[in-house]
Amino acid sequence: MAGRTCEILVGTSGYSYPEWTAAGVYHPGMKQRDMLAFYAGRFAAVELNFTWYQMPKADALDRMRGRVPASFVFAVKLNRTLTHEVVPGEWRGNVRRFREGVAPLVQSGQLGAVLVQLPPSFHRSPGHRRYLADLLDALDGLPRAVEFRHASWGTGAAAEKVAAAMAARQVALVAVDAPRLPGLYPPEGMAAPGTVTCPAFFYLRLHGRNAAGWRSGSMQRQFDYDYSEAELREWTDERISAMAGRAARGFVFFNNHVRGQAPRNAEALAALLAGRGMSCTPPPGRRTLAGASEALPWTEPSST
């Protein structure tokens, strides 16, 4: 990537959480339909989670596209009928429906990635490997990123084989920040948690490190976490720099959304990257509720 600058877009996983109003992210009384436009005043990219629960509809995404600048980028999570609730004989039709739904973003050049987030039960078996290969081939032509949850995809020699298979298809292997728990990806001791397998873009998701809440069965506990500056620097000081040297663009999304930590942490990480002279969006500072720019205060981490 010599001679090229990697554009790093930092944002959050989802944007319309009701609790973000109480956390001060949105003005009290702001309607949900107005939140994306306001969010786009602070961040240049968002990861859409609702498309996992319901198949994306072209008219809905086209309306969303109209609420943001033309430079704004969407990452879209693949629908659950293709990752968690797969029905043999039906999934190819669901791929077609998904592709039709995201077509407006493809046509406008605003589809940054399709996130294929696989469940913890999706371990590295011959059957799962065949299905994943077929799925990625069916999604060919779209920018694809794969996130594993089962440690078998990153254990021992499997890590190199998986990375090579992703690179052969020009698919981004998602780098993950999460609690180090038995059986969870990335496994303890994984040599390269930030391996870049697609020169077009790298993809990093930060879920928080709430080990006590991760397997509680409650999303409110699982993703309740506030990163400290030292924890963010683990990524900004070395890992992201190395990843940026191998890709034209980078996506960094925070999924620790419960009490509004995600946007605070995203802005803090963006400021740290900018301080290192990296091309990062958003720049240091943020838009207040009144629309003015203010310096970023550092928020102390929570006790979770």
Which properties best describe this structure?
304 residues, five-stranded parallel sheet, TIM Barrel, alpha/beta, 11 helices, disordered C terminus
Can you put this structure into words, describing what you see?
Mean pLDDT is 88; it is low at 284-304. The longest helix has 18 residues, at 91-108. Helix 4 runs parallel beside helix 5 (91-108) and helix 10 (229-244) crosses helix 11. The protein is built from eleven helices and twelve strands. The protein has helices spanning 19-22, 32-39, 50-53, 58-65, 91-108, 126-138, 157-168, 211-214, 219-222, 229-244, 261-275; strands at residues 7-12, 45-48, 73-77, 111-117, 144-147, 172-173, 175-177, 202-206, 249-254, 280-281, 286-287, 293-294. The protein is 35% helix and 16% strand. The protein has a five-stranded parallel β-sheet with strand order 7-8-9-1-10, covered by helices on one side. The termini are far apart. With 304 residues, it is an alpha/beta fold. The chain has one domain: Protein of unknown function UPF0759 (TIM Barrel, Alpha-Beta Barrel).
Topology:
Layout: E1 7-12, H1 19-22, H2 32-39, E2 45-48, H3 50-53, H4 58-65, E3 73-77, H5 91-108, E4 111-117, H6 126-138, E5 144-147, H7 157-168, E6 172-173, E7 175-177, E8 202-206, H8 211-214, H9 219-222, H10 229-244, E9 249-254, H11 261-275, E10 280-281, E11 286-287, E12 293-294
Parallel strand pairs: 1-9, 1-10, 2-3, 3-4, 4-5, 5-6, 7-8, 8-9
Antiparallel strand pairs: 11-12
Helix pairs in contact: 4-5, 10-11
